[in-house]
Amino acid sequence: MNGPPPVKKLSSMSAVFPAYNDGGTITSMVAAAALALRQTTTDFEIIVVNDGSTDYTATILEETARLYPELKVITHSVNQGYGAALRSGFQAAVKDWVFYTDGDSQYNPLELVNLVNALAGGADAVNGYKLTRNDSWMRIVIGRAYHYFVKFLFGIRIRDVDCDFRLIPRKILAEIKLTSKTGAICLELVKKIQDFGYTFAEIPVNHYSRKYGVSQFFSPKRIARTLSQLSNLYWILVVKKEHLKRAG
């Protein structure tokens, strides 16, 4: 789904991809992102954060960088977690807008065109929401339970906090100052943007089953780590509201 041409091209854009053992998909993601970015801006960069991959992701990225001079590769020597990888990508981004999605090909970067179109309504940022979730029934159940749990607990207003397909101005990312190292960063990101008074446009996006590798989130260790992070975020963001005190 390529969508209609964008209403107008954005000034500049960074596309960020966290990657962990995504050797089988990351080149296609970079190629698709390059196509989408050329439709939506005249000034772009692609950033892949290799978060301590143990497969051939590093080798593939070396070859891919020869084909795409716009590609920057950031390497974590050891796996630091999804949130840490995303933060490294955001910190390296230098363009006015930041688009991000995962390196595992569960979302199609060509749908970036639709995110750009959604800005025509005057929203500050754009959040995708999954049309359908192409996962196992267990992941669908756990994912839905997580969504409703955090939506109630944190007062989240968007329909899909767990959809990693977003377009955000870099100046907002600089203002909200993310801290999470786990997958809970998505919740922290949305909550802080919402609490700082910015608005989201929401558009449907396709979600595809994983073709390569294994999800890192749905392991007991990762789930326990994320639950601990959620507890900490609730204390900081909902009870103490430290982010709003610093902004004030």
Short description:
The chain is built from nine helices and seven strands, in the order βαβαβαβαβαβααβαα. By secondary structure, the chain is α/β, with parallel strands linked by helices.
Structure description:
The protein is of the alpha/beta class and 248 residues long. It has one domain (13-247): Spore Coat Polysaccharide Biosynthesis Protein SpsA, Chain A. It contains 9 helices and 7 strands. Strands 3-2-1-4-6-5-7 form a 7-stranded mixed β-sheet, sandwiched between helices. The longest helix is centred in the C-terminal third of the chain and has 20 residues, at 220-239. The mean pLDDT is 89.
Task: Describe the secondary structure blueprint for this structure.
Elements: E1 13-19, H1 26-40, E2 44-51, H2 57-67, E3 71-76, H3 82-92, E4 97-101, H4 112-118, E5 125-130, H5 137-154, E6 165-169, H6 170-176, H7 185-195, E7 200-205, H8 220-239, H9 242-247
